[in-house]
Amino acid sequence: MNLKGIHHLTAVTANVRENYAFYTSVLGLRLVKRSVNQDDVSAYHLFYSGDKVGSPGNDLTFFDWNVPREQRGTQSIIRTGLRVSGADAVQWWHEWLTEKKVDHEAPQEIDGRNTILFEDFEGQRLAIIGDNAASDPHQAWEKSVVPSACQILGQGPIILSVPDLHNTDRVLTNVLNMRQVRSYSLPDRQTDRVYVYEMGDGGARAELHIAVQPDLKPARSGAGSVHHVAFRTPTFEEYHQWTERLKQFRIPNSGEVDRFWFRSLYFREPNGILFEIATDEPGFGIDEPLESLGESVVLPPFLEAHRATIVANLKPLK
After folding, report:
1. Phi, psi torsion values for 285, nearest 5 degrees
2. Which residues, 6+ apart, have CB-to-CB distance to 105 below 8 Å?
3. Picking from 132-136, 154-158, 240-244, which range would have the lowest pLDDT averaged per residue?
4. How far apart are CA 85 and CA 287, in angstroms?
């Protein structure tokens, strides 16, 4: 049993209109699913993708919650990598972010990859990662403001901060079958070591980076924070096997949850960071045409009876 890589990452925004503008008009992502948090229908759940059809591994999603800014610290996900096709694409992004007046650092080599560190308008920590490795096929979105050769190919690596590595390492290696392959120092905190774990075939799309930061206070979630990271499992059969595996290791979990576009299984690693295992299938095309993804509010079947009330309470995106 091997996870294939990053499935999606879900973060928090307190300004959904500015969030929509930034991720579509600056990062060039497509809104591939306009829905609601299935556990809190008062909040949007927006799915953005660098891929035209929202393939697994491409989806950066947001809950819209009216909350104060995140208080940064450990026991949290601290940066999301956004992969592009190599050095030329990284340079394009440096010039584009400058033109759009997005605060960012100059390209630098981090863990052997050409990288631009930057933040969105709420302090969501992001990175453009030059990735020359083989990847899943990418279906460029022809309406993106970003040229097809420079479009974001998906997430990864994802960086977590923990005060102690020992128990997290045991879950990653013994339960999730990840492999610790190398380490490096954080560029802005050279004394903090980052340990790289890979899954599946490896590469940036299938890496989890763990920064050990025992001197930091625990983070407090809020706007600009990450809610959880999800890992890919290709089939329903393997998904059921992961459910049984968590039971065997006596790891408390959500049980199997049908999100309609994929199936989910949630649990927390020992430092309290929320993980999800999500299926590749059936995908976002199950309930609306691919050419019109994200243009209207789409609800899973069990919420359809409440559509009028739910939609009436949602804010306009533009």
Report:
1. -80, 5
2. 116, 117, 118
3. 132-136
4. 31
